[in-house]
């Protein structure tokens, strides 16, 4: 498994880079299975995604949630989006670290003039493009990746305006090698991120209980994120007639929800050693997690 973050200015060739990398990985000796997570999968107009800060924050939350769900499936996950904020790239790096997988950033380095020209050409052809005001705002706020940052490393830099992007590009080949190389005790040029104590999930002896707990808690997190994304202040998250609501007194971000979920899973694993066994059905797991969240939120 691995997480690849595609990064670059608007209209800098990121989607071409993502598809090219995915196809090259699929044709490699390992025949690696790849999943691309992009903005188009949410069926939203790109100008709507970046029309204002709440819309942009909502988009990043959806992408992040999809990544969090996907990194455990065994695929190489490619995040095809602007990924222009270094704090957001750090959050994606944390997801990779918690999963104990490889991570890298592929940066499409294109000057603003070419990006602006390509955006105009897309508009002239009637293809999806950015409005001028949104384009200029995104360019202004872009935070270039720096390889000295752990969340931007290793960094593979492409130059689409100067060199183009195809399967024979040396940088694409380097990235494929990094993502597919067999790791053993002698391997030094490939880094597998290691979970910290705080991010390691407790290991349970009952596989079915672990599966139900993992799935149930993720469904609760998804419900909270979804209801908060509808806009407006909410004080209660409803989960159907079978479960009590979750009382909240402030907006709860995904990083905090993820932290609470990890803590809950760890506590459940510890308590099962000397107390009640882990729940073996989804409803019981959900009810315990809801009770835990209400205690944490003071509900």
UniProtKB/TrEMBL annotation:
Keywords: ATP-binding, Nucleotide-binding. InterPro entries: KTI12/PSTK, P-loop_NTPase. Pfam families: KTI12 (PF08433). It comes from the Eukaryota. Belongs to the KTI12 family. This is Protein KTI12 homolog. It comes from Camelina sativa (False flax). The gene is LOC104755680.
């Amino acid at each position: 498994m691995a997480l690849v973050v595609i990064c670059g200015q608007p209209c800098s060739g990121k989607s071409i880079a993502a598809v090219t990398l995915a196809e090259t990985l699929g044709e490699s000796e390992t025949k690696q299975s790849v999943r691309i997570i992009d903005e188009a999968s949410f069926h939203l107009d790109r100008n709507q995604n970046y029309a204002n800060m709440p819309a942009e924050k909502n988009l990043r939350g959806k992408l992040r949630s999809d990544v969090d769900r996907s990194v455990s499936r065994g695929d190489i996950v490619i995040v095809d989006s602007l990924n222009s904020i270094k704090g957001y790239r750090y959050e994606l790096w944390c997801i990779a670290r918690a999963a104990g997988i490889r991570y890298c950033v592929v940066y499409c380095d294109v000057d603003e003039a070419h990006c602006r020209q390509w955006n105009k050409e897309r508009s002239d052809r009637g293809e999806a493009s950015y409005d001028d005001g949104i384009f200029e705002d995104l360019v202004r706020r872009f935070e270039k990746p720096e390889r000295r940052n752990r969340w931007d490393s290793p960094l593979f830099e492409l130059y689409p305006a100067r060199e183009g992007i195809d399967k024979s590009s040396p940088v694409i080949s380097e990235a494929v090698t990094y993502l597919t190389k067999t790791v053993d005790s002698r391997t030094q040029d490939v880094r597998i991120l290691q979970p910290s104590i705080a991010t390691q999930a407790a290991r349970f002896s009952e596989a079915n209980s672990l599966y139900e707990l993992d799935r149930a808690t993720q469904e609760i997190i998804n419900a909270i994120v979804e209801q908060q994304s509808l806009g407006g202040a909410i004080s209660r998250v409803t989960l159907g007639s079978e479960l009590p609501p979750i009382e909240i007194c402030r907006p709860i971000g995904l990083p905090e929800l993820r932290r609470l979920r990890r803590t809950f899973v760890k506590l459940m694993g510890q308590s099962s050693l000397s107390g009640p066994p882990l729940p073996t059905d989804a409803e019981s797991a959900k009810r315990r997690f809801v009770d835990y969240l209400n205690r944490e939120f003071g509900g």
